[in-house]
């Protein structure tokens, strides 16, 4: 069974002339305005502020682990820095299928 998430399009209103002339600057925060769910994009914005090139993602991994602890989840770190976060089921939903999410916290940096 395939599940498809449909997100309504987001419209940004700005003058291309203002952007090109330097009178307007697109920032990460300005691009995330109006996206739902907002709390997800707030986390994304905060994580995006942490430098985390490949092989240098320890600070970002610790940030992710801290968010899990702050939310009351079980958090494990292994010897190589992987973060495992477990969130127990909501009361009454223990028998429901389990969801597993996997992601990288590092980012591929552009060579200058």
What features would you describe in this structure?
This protein has helices spanning 16-21, 28-32, 38-48, 58-70; strands at 74-77, 83-86. It has 112 residues and is mainly α. It is flat and about 55 Å long. 2% of the residues are buried.
* pLDDT averaged over residues: 83
H and E string = HHHHEE
Euclidean distance between termini CA atoms: 44 Å
Order the strands across the largest sheet as they lie in space: 1-2
Rg is 18 Å
Strand content: 5-15%
Number of strands: 2
> With helices defined by DSSP (H or I, 4 residues minimum), what is the helix count?
4
SS-based class: mainly alpha
Portion in helices:
25-40%
- Biggest sheet statistics: 2 strands, antiparallel
Keywords:
flat, two-stranded antiparallel ribbon, 112 residues, 2 strands
Short note summarizing the structure:
This protein is mainly alpha-helical.
Provide the fold topology.
Elements: H1 16-21, H2 28-32, H3 38-48, H4 58-70, E1 74-77, E2 83-86
Antiparallel strand pairs: 1-2
């Amino acid at each position: 069974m395939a599940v498809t998430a449909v997100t309504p399009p987001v419209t940004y209103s700005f003058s291309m002339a203002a952007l090109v002339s330097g009178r307007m600057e697109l920032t990460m925060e300005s691009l995330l305005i109006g996206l739902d769910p907002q709390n997800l994009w707030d986390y994304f914005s905060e994580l995006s502020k942490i430098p985390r090139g490949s092989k240098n993602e320890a600070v970002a991994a610790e940030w992710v682990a801290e968010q899990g602890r702050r939310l009351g989840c079980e958090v494990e770190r292994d010897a190589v820095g992987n973060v495992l976060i477990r969130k127990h089921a909501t009361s009454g939903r223990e028998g429901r299928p389990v969801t597993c999410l996997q992601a990288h916290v590092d980012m591929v940096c552009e060579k200058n």
